[in-house]
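Here is one such tokenized protein:
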Amino acid sequence: MKISASVAEFNPFHSGHKLLLDSMHSKSDAVVAIMSPNFVQRGECALFDKNERAISAVKNGVDLVLELPTVYALSSAEGFARGAVETLCRCGVVDELWFGSELGEISPLQECAEILNDEPAVFKAILAEKLSEGLSFPAARHMALRETMHGSVPDAMPNNILALEYLRVLKKLSSGIVPVTIKRVGSGYNDSNVKGEIPSASAIRRLLAEGEDASGYMMHVYAAHPVFMHQFDVMVASRLKTISHEELCRIPDCNSEIASRLKDAGVYNTFKDIVSHASCRRYTDSRLRRILCNMIIGNNFKQLPSPQYIRPLAFNSAGGEILRKMKNTASLPVAARGAILKNNDIFNLECRATDIYNLARKEKGGQEFSTAVQRL
């Protein structure tokens, strides 16, 4: 049984996701996806509850959906990739890792990933120089990579960046999983305008935020109303006004300078305004958004931990076969019930994140213990 995997958010599930899954199925016997839960890597809440998004994925071709814990989902691209790829490796069943990229070619991406892992002296010197000029780390790293490779480097587009991080983790782990990339088609990752046959998830989210009908662009009929970050405004503003500078510095990816900027911006009362007034050339909006999200869920993992469990969210008959196989191959416990993980710090953070998410949905807490794995 050849099993392919992908890392996803399905936020929401659209035709671009379906295109990737169809390509995977054409070369594989089964498909696994590891999916972000109720908060996502861009530093926002997910539009729809993770269980419903997992169902949407299985109904559209994924055989088994695994959860990417929030501690990784609300991390930098490097941390996000590390949590996802290492978890997939520890399943012991995955043969290929598929991902979209703006480049669509694996060899140049692998060459760049090797430089980022090895960090030759010339690269480190250029990186330090660019950081001293006040550039953000992603921008400085890309420029250092470009100058080290004399310009022959993929553009710093979102999917290319994640592709590099997936390849870096596979290399560091000496994994036998084979990476496969396909060229991203349709609208750009951050394109907020609906156009063409494959609009971006950003464009679909914008339509929904404006109260427009986006059903024609989604591949699933969601039962619940979408959730947006403005529904967390009171939580974010009140927590930022009461948290100390020292506590804020303990939030992942935060430092003293960022903490000061955020505290100064704390005079504003909306998530959007706080980010807007705290941002600068050195610190990206997405980094600030992730810090604020981590702040309200109480994430104090200053050092990113290694994955400690594998948690299925939804599966079909083929996915059930994969889970049975994993009983013999997985090097981490496969936890289908939350009660098994009640003393685990990563899971306890998951519980807080879900309870905070459900506050905005006006749903009761405790969902991590009451919701069963979805069998479809």
